[in-house]
Each structure stands twice: as structure tokens, then as C-alpha cells.
Amino acid sequence: MKEFTASLQKHYSRGPNTETILENLRRKGLDLARLRPQELYPYDQSHAGGINSTRMLASLAGIEPHSCVVDVGCGIGGAARFLHTEFSCRVLGFDLALTRLRTAIELTRLVSGKEGETKQMHFLAAQADSLPLPFHFADVVWTQHLLMNLPDLPAFLRESARVLKPSGRLAAHEWFLDQQHHPGKLRLPLPWASNPSLNHAGSSDEFLQMLRDHNFIPKVEDVTAAMKDALRKNVQVLTSLKSASERITALENLLQAADEGTFSCLMITARKKRSQE
């Protein structure tokens, strides 16, 4: 596990950091002393589809004002800040990539005009299957592009069921491997895996069955077409900016695999089954 965590941290250390984001904001002429969370949205949503995907998942999940959300694989905190800004949610974000957690904390402090706002968002290092939270704590467990890095999905679902309230639900925006394709034949790098040890993408059918086995009732929205369009735009932008070649290649590999039907992107919302159901 230590080797996996070290490899994961190294992989995600290449992601966007505070200084890169602030430099982009300076170029736009924004006053960093008066920065609003919404002005980070073009830069802090580290998943396919950006802020549009975050909004869509929040809608599908039925996020309500003042909900308590646990964001597993929170990255640099983009979804957490969105959920707090738009819904006044209390959000606890967890990740294993320490550099990303530092960026999440720095950006949150930058846009929090009141001390009370930062108290409603916390970012901590923890494993997805071992969260430092009590039973029946959260209204929603939220993930975006997490599952492909998880070697033990049943353990994650058990932990999600534990921390969710009886009325709670899971909201996931993830890439899934077609059941006919073997992970060992994938072109690497991918956005979540620079080497084979980090890639744990599985099939949607298997994950949906796992959800049912853990007493969740899932609903599925296939967003593959929209995510492919977003990936194409990202590749064009990054190419024009002469970004790191490995980052562009990872997106191109995912886009090609999605075009070939190897990967699909789904938004899955799943509520805990009631005892009488």
C-alpha cells in the first residue's frame, strides 16, 4: 500500500497548483485580493467536463442547501468549493495526494472572505476505505474520477455505507472499462494512471452490481458523448498552450479509447436501501 500511495502522490503532483492558477487569473486582470470562488471554476475542476459536469452531478444527486457532503478524492477542492458556494454545504474533502490537498487549502483560504466559511470546508489525507468519520455522518458521499484509482471498490462501498445517514446517497462521476477489454491492453498514460499499477478501472456492470450488493439502489446517466466533446476541447487548448506532452497524450489516449468504445463515462447516483424495501 505504501508503494501504491507513493506512486499515486507522484502522479498527481503534476496537476495544477496554486501558483499556476493564480498566474492565469493575473493574466485575466482579476484582483486576487477580492477573488470569488466562481472565478476559480475554469481552473479548479479537475475532471472531464469541468464545472458543467460538477453542476450536472449536483443536480442528479439532488444536493440540498446545508447538506453535509464527503468528497472522496477531492483533489484541489474544486467540487468542495462549488458545493459550499452554491448550496452552503458543509464539505469534508479527502485525498491521498498531499500536494493537491495543499493546493485545495491554499485556494480555499484565498476565496474565503469570512473565517466561518473555511470552517465549513476541511481537507484531510485519508484512504477511501478508512475515513476518520463517525457512523451516519454525511448526506452525500461524492466522487469524481476516483474509482479508477481504487484497488478495492467493495471496501470503499462499505465505508460509504457506514458514513452515510440512513437517507444518504452516493454520487459518482467516473470512467468505466468495457467488460470485453482487459486493463493490461490499454494505452498509457491515462489521466489517472501514468503506469499500470495505478489503473484500476473496472466495468460499470460490475460496479452497479457491487452497489446493489451493498444495499444501494443506483440510477445511471451515460455522459460519454459530452465528456468526449470536452476532452477534444481540452486537447486543443492544451496543445495551443504547448502544455506538457504527457498530459496531452494522456487525454488523447482516453479520447481514443472512448471513441473505440473501450471506455464509457457515467454519472451514478445511488441511495441507501430502506429496511422495508
Description of the molecule:
- There is one protein chain.
- The chain is of the alpha/beta class and about 280 residues long.
- The chain has one domain (about 1-40, about 55-270): 3-Layer(aba) Sandwich (Rossmann fold), CATH 3.40.50.
- It is about 45% helix and about 20% strand.
- It has eleven helices and seven strands.
- Strands 3-2-1-4-5-7-6 form a seven-stranded mixed β-sheet, with helices on both faces.
- Helix 8 (about 155-165) links the parallel strand 4 and strand 5 (about 165-175).
- Helix 10 runs antiparallel to helix 11 (about 245-260).
- It is globular.
- The N and C termini lie far apart (about 40 Å).
- The model has no long low-confidence stretch (mean pLDDT about 95).
Spell out the blueprint of helices and strands.
Blueprint: H1 2-12, H2 18-27, H3 41-44, H4 50-61, E1 68-72, H5 78-87, E2 90-95, H6 98-111, H7 115-118, E3 121-125, E4 138-144, H8 153-163, E5 164-177, H9 204-213, E6 216-222, H10 224-240, H11 245-259, E7 263-272
Parallel strand pairs: 1-2, 1-4, 2-3, 4-5
Antiparallel strand pairs: 5-7, 6-7
Helix pairs in contact: 10-11
